[in-house]
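Z., the sequence and structure:
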Amino acid sequence: MLNRRIRFSLYVIATTGVISATLLLTDQNRAVAAAAADDIPRTSWGKPNLNGYWDFHHLTPLQRPARFEGVEIMSEAQAKDWEDNAYNREANNRGRNRDPSTVNYVGVDLWHEEALGEWELDEHRTSLITDPPNGRVPPLLESRQTERRANPRFRGAARGPEDRTMAERCISASQSIPPIKTLIENAMLQVTLTEDYAVIHTERMHDSRIIPLDNRPPLPGHVKQFYGSSTGYWDGDTLVIETTNIHPSYSYQGSSPDIKVIERLSLTNDNRIHYEYTIDDPRAYPQPWTASFHWKKHAGPVFEYACHEFNYGLTGILAGFRAQEHRELTGEEYSPPIPEGDYR
């Protein structure tokens, strides 16, 4: 009996020691995780501090090019080649299917070359798309393709401003509509965060999305807005923003008016924002798809994108169509003087 008691006591002591060690190890893991989480700057109310100016220029393509099929990360040599030839790729894309003698980008080429020379790939990735694994936008459903073909779009000479795009009319720019997309210029934004709201202010087209953070329901489905109806909430340390009700004049990669965009913003330990978005649109795609990239901290500020101050571009576009019609009807050139007062 005594031996049994001794053996039992030793068992209890050994077991207790294992349990204590396990608990201690678990507590240490939790402490390490908490310390890692505390490496990021936080607001006075404890959330990751996303406030400030952010630069989201990069050279990673949205979809994986055919030359990188099956490759997620470029080698150092491939990345250098991709970055060194960024300007040439852009110039070729803009001149595609055009007579070089008729393409004129006076001035634009010069600063595009300088700007593109400064950018880098986002961690040498071959595509922003992370799901599907092939790094490509899922093919549009046949029903959506039919719907797009049946959509009447003005293809002749513009009779008035309504025949031109929202961007040309300085009403909205696709860069201000979720999801956030990079571009050659003006890929800057400012985030202002409070306990109740997040504001994302884009340099182009100088617009602000004001996002409540109480996970409220979106607006009724028939109420469409140029930047949609956004609602946000915190999932741990990740800010989640869901947007629906985007104006039907907008389409992203063939999306339909039923598009839902889910954005996730997470602050990293190196003071970048990891931005991820998912496109959920069963009317357009056989499955949702996801892309992501990083924003870099910037000293700022963002500058005013004064697109609508007299909008000389739209005036010139419409005047050009009228001159073209005059030539076609009369065979003569038509170039009326523009009153100086129109430009004041």
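The chain is about 25% helix and 20% strand. The two ends are 107 Å apart (CA to CA).

Let me know what you think.
H.
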